[in-house]
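Honest question from a wet-lab person: if I give you the sequences of every part of a complex, can you actually get the arrangement of the whole thing, not just the pieces? Trying it with mine:
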Amino acid sequence: MHDKTFRASMRTLTVLLALLVAFAAAPAALAEEGGYPNVNVNVHDKASLQRGARLFMNYCVGCHSLKYMRYSQMAEGLGLTEQQVMDNLNFTGVKFGEPIVSAMPEADAEKWLGKAPPDLSLEVSARGADWVAAYLKSFYLDPSTASGWNNTVFPNVAMPFPLWQLQGEQVAVMSPPANGEPATIKELKLAQPGSMTPAQYDRAVRDLTAFLTYVSSPDELVRSSMGAWVVLYLVFFTLFALVLKKEYWKDVH
Amino acid sequence: MGAFTQWFNERAPGLGAVYKKHMTEYYAPKNFNVMYYFGSLAMLVLVNQIVTGIFLAMFYTPTAAGAFDSVQYIMRDVNWGWLVRYMHTTGASMFFIVIYLHMFRGLMYGSFKKPRELVWLIGMLIFLVLMAEAFMGYVLPWGNMSFWGAKVIITLFSAVPWFGHTLVTWIMGTFVPGDPTLNRFFALHVVALPLVLLLLVVLHLGALHEVGSNNPDGVEIKKHKNPKGIPLDGIAFHPYYTLKDLVGVGVFLIICAVIIFFAPSVGGFFLEHDNSIPANDLVTPATIKPVWYFSPFYAILRMIPSKGLGVLALAASIVALFLVPWLDRGGVKSIRYRGLGYKIALAIFAIVFFLLGCIGADLTPGWIVSIFGPNADITTIENLFGRILVILYFAFFVFLWVYTFFGFERTRPVPERVTTHA
Ligand code: HEM
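Yes, you can. This is the full assembly:
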């Protein structure tokens, strides 16, 4: 009889664990669905986050804010001292405890670019890391737009490509128009190399995306390591409950 | 009896009796299986929602200007705020998983049948209030999906004849969801509906304990009692089922912890991507869809070409569940001894419900493209597929009545006593 109890419990556990695996697999499967290549960011790689932050402060903060992130919080998350952040990463000239807000007034930005650059604090939560990385790799020269740049991931984007010196200049290769339909872009080709090789640029994009992933959910830095302990504790709790239950149920026939 | 218990019993003899009636002297069938874990798990989740909700309410601002910022404040600046919020958001989704399984158990073992119709009806009321509670909670963070979801769902009430549009404005408090909407939804979500839920849960359990629990064999254990009046197949709820449920709680918490700590948004299902963008009445999300747990019902609404009829079908899909105790005239409760027709119908019903959910969650366009190629006419195929599913959904209830009312069901003999226990 105890054997039966045990087997039934194990069956339950297996069913529930199968559900659990399905749950864990679902996000991964959906990530594929977006159709953008996986960037594989690692928010636990502090050096990568620091490089990403440096890129952001050099190339993006002129237009984009991270208004939900303070310099002081960023220092903690990136493992940097106040001195290091104030010397190397704070170009907006505000105090250490202030949020990361672009110096460009929104009205001016809208006038110059046609569109106000959105706050990027939650960009990765909203679009996904893969989208952001693909976006940063998909700018190409297009004389028909106001800025001279276009983007295959975000057509007719109002943002001029800030990283062109690094990646170089891409142009669109069109596929020949097939039976009456308009020509489509087949691929992007690097017409003018930048200061980085494609591999180096990929890494830079991964760093920048990792940084933005961290900014979107800073809790990710502590969450998974804490989660391992919580789950371990709960496994022991469950085993203990199971033993106790079996002991009490001995007299049920 | 300990000195304290004695002191207490002398002053409040009624309380001790209540405890005994519902715990140590409530005799539950000894053959409960996995499906019987979900009632106690629903209570656990309800408590979790209330406790984490209290902490969220301490830091949340119910205004259109402040709501989104206050949620980010909770996530980033409040100590353990992210954990509390993820416990609340994960709890909301787990609540529905648990409740759907709990209701399915009722359909499997005929728990809605005499003498438990009232337990089922109160359960259905709980389900209605729970849907209202979840909907209003989802509006509070004031993301773009909160805003558009609120707008679309509240506007459904305009299908009510004559005063529909007045009703919509009355519910919103304005013409577009805004401060008044947020304020009243906050009051309802945080105070009114949780109180109603708690009251209904007490009534639900009160009604159940009056008649006693059903079980996977669908036999009434009260038919065979020992000389002391205790059912031969019954065991005291406490300690036997409190301990058994504790094991279920452990497994359930492991699943919850994995979600909370490793994938709190569950790929956009538990926390939708578009809700990371603040509410904006100028930017419509690419697809407006409710959270996954409403998606089967949302699909029923969407698949009906006329809005008025769609709302009617949506209402009917829930009313039909209320009526199940009277639609099903079969004498046998448990699926173990029911006719093959019922087994097949219930399996199809479950699959249909799941597939409707996939349509409502907007997963079907991707499937259609991968099956029929990139030039497929997504809308036509989806409508065809979806409308067949809607018909099958309602066909279940019609079948149930015809099958049992005209005596088509061929049941197997039901044992006198419960057969298994684990
Ligand atoms: C807050 C939500 C709910 C809570 C906390 C809750 C709680 C419970 C508990 C603790 C039990 C006894 C244990 C068990 O049989 O699993 C129970 C039984 C039952 N519940 Fe619920 N319930 C909820 C919602 C519902 C809903 C939505 C329905 C269906 C419409 C429902 C229908 C039933 C039925 C028919 C039984 C008797 C089952 C039997 O004896 O076989 N409940 N509920």
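Two things worth pointing out. Chain A has a mean pLDDT of 88. The domain at 32-218 of chain A is CATH 1.10.760.10 (Cytochrome Bc1 Complex; Chain D, domain 2).
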